[in-house]
Amino acid sequence: MQFHERITAELGQLKERDRLRAVPEVTSRDGRFISIGGRRLMNLSSNDYLGLGDDQELRRVYFESCRSGLPPLGSSSSRLLTGSHPLYDELEQELAGLYGREAAMVFNSGYHANTGILPALAGRHDLVLSDRLNHASIIDGMKIADARWERYPHGDYLHLEELLEAARGRYRQIFIISESVFSMDGDLADLRRLVELKKRHDAVLIIDEAHGTGVFGQRGLGLTENEGVTGEVDIIIGTFGKALGSAGAYAVMDRVVRQYLVNTMRTFIFTTALPPVTLGWSLLTLRRQVGMQVERRALLALASRLRSEISALGFEVPGESHIVPVTAGADSRALKMAAALRDAGFLAMAVRPPSVPENSARVRISLRSILGWDDIAGVAGCLGGLRR
Ligand code: PMP
């Protein structure tokens, strides 16, 4: 079959199964609202959890600070060639200092971090144990790595321990990798348990705080800070693209691990560095969010109220964070719920396989500290009309 015919047929199959995706026609995005296809909707689908990405005042502060010289808009090369910049050093030192760790490293994105770290560290004689609901970028990282990998049922640390026992003595090194705040279920990993397991089994623990950064912890360092384990997790990964309202990602670690990654991590070595203008903005939003405890508390309280209102209607709403997934089951039902919300003026996306396991489609509401109860009070009422 000709190339175009074949892929057109595959697209047709996706459409039949309610799985065809398209890039939304975003015409503007400001504060609480987003305009899609000319319609202004309350944005319940943004990862800008603290509203920093849309903060006009902070943007002005940044532009003001650039008056004496705008940081370059491009970086010219990869970091090991000529693409590094004093802002990289400043940002990495700031991160290491905040986390009380020896070293930090900034990456182009969380996707680069997750597809680069495991392949660099885990080789042929190693084993990676990963939570079943870990993000696609972690799965891709495991697929690229030469190591063996296995997934343990989501949050099932007894099962993880069995896998660790069974692996004892059979591998050079065992790695455990988990998200802290799960991106699609909004629930939390038991980080103290994971630290205890990693210690007992001499494993290396990697925690992806993509959705925890900025939201959890006294200084917004994530769930690791909340649980008092920032010094005990071998590598903590965070992103600048979500609560920090910028782009890129980081990890904190011991100095020797950084040195090893600088020498072996292909998604670090073989990609053009981030534009310094982005690094300067990341530094500003990172510093700003440290003091946003009031916003963090308000965000989690808002989520808890919405969760109880929607569960009271008979929906299953897992998790305990600012990510509020409303379980639908069938893809078509998730699409129907998202459409009803959209008709009522709310943008919350239907999430379908392969982003989530089969038969667990959902509407994913992600809340932000710039939203108040009045902004979202209509959500439960709207879903109430669709009760099972
Ligand atoms: N890890 C997790 C848990 C994520 O949810 C995401 C983004 N959705 C990433 C990593 C990738 O981060 P980035 O968007 O910076 O590539």
UniProtKB/TrEMBL annotation:
Matching CDD domains, A to Z? Answer: KBL_like
Q: What SUPFAM superfamilies does UniProt report for this protein, alphabetically? A: PLP-dependent transferases
| UniProt domain Aminotransferase class I/classII large: residue ranges | 41-367
The record's keywords, sorted A to Z, are:
Acyltransferase, Biotin biosynthesis, Pyridoxal phosphate, Transferase
Q: What is any one GO biological process for this UniProt entry? A: biotin biosynthetic process
The protein's required cofactors:
pyridoxal 5'-phosphate
Catalytic activities: 6-carboxyhexanoyl-[ACP] + L-alanine + H(+) = (8S)-8-amino-7-oxononanoate + holo-[ACP] + CO2
What EC number(s) does its UniProt record assign?
A: 2.3.1.47
Q: GO terms for molecular function, please?
A: 8-amino-7-oxononanoate synthase activity; pyridoxal phosphate binding
* One Pfam family, short name: Aminotran_1_2
Q: In which pathway does it act?
A: Cofactor biosynthesis; biotin biosynthesis
Entry similarity comment: Belongs to the class-II pyridoxal-phosphate-dependent aminotransferase family. BioF subfamily.
Subunit relationships: Homodimer.
State what protein this is by name. Answer: 8-amino-7-oxononanoate synthase
